[in-house]
């Protein structure tokens, strides 16, 4: 039995409440706003341009709950609106974020991956959910650290020290909370729909 399962596409959590185009639009905008809100939980670190934020937690929850299509739209909306001037990037910033731009690309890819994995049942078990969160987090950091090294003209090792290592514990905590919350939410939803 595989830890990460690949079934035919299954409903994701948002499918349980979304039946109309208007509901889908509301979910997409709400997910983008949720990530924007969590981006305001931002702690600058003196040795790197990358702050500690709550964004990745929002991406884990939204990407998994929405499924890959809505997740792609939500995170694309988040990135495009922020680049266009809506101040909902980390710490209320907007526009081109320079050294942190790679993380924004990673947010979109991560949300899509999480949504796709959820549509194949990986959000139904704690192990599958945790592995999905770890994979999605890896996508964010591959994009973010690569861009950081390119933008700052530093070695990959230096970029890892600036853009990955300081965040490991925080990401483990966020992934653990999200990885346990999603299967638990499914159990509640399934129980509620049986009655």
Summarize the structure.
By secondary structure, the chain is mostly helical. The chain contains 7 helices and 2 strands; from the N terminus they run H-E-E-H-H-H-H-H-H.
Describe what you observe in this structure.
- With 195 residues, the protein is mainly α.
- The protein has one domain: Arp2/3 complex 21 kDa subunit ARPC3 (Orthogonal Bundle), CATH 1.10.1760.
- It has seven helices and two strands, in the order H-E-E-H-H-H-H-H-H.
- Strands 1-2 form a two-stranded antiparallel ribbon.
- A hairpin with an 8-residue loop joins strand 1 (42-43) and strand 2 (52-53).
- Helix 1 (21-38) crosses helix 3 (68-83) and helix 3 (68-83) runs antiparallel to helix 4.
- The protein is globular and about 55 Å long.
């Amino acid at each position: 039995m595989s830890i990460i399962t690949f079934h035919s596409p299954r409903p994701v959590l948002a499918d349980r409440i979304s039946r109309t185009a208007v509901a889908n639009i509301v979910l997409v905008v709400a997910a983008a706003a949720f990530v924007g809100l969590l981006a305001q939980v931002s702690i600058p670190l003196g040795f790197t341009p990358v702050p500690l934020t709550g964004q990745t937690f929002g991406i884990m929850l939204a990407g998994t709950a929405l499924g890959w299509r809505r997740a792609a739209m939500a995170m694309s909306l988040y990135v495009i609106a922020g680049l266009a001037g809506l101040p909902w990037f980390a710490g209320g910033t907007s526009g081109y974020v320079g050294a942190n731009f790679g993380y924004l690309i990673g947010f979109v890819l991560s949300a899509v991956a999480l949504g796709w994995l959820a549509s194949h049942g990986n959000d139904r078990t704690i192990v599958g959910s945790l592995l999905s969160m770890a994979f999605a987090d890896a996508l964010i950091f591959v994009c973010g650290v690569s861009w950081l090294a390119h933008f700052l003209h530093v070695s990959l090792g230096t970029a890892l020290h600036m853009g990955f290592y300081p965040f490991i514990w925080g990401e483990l905590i966020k992934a653990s909370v999200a990885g346990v919350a999603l299967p638990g939410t499914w159990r509640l939803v399934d129980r509620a729909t049986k009655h």
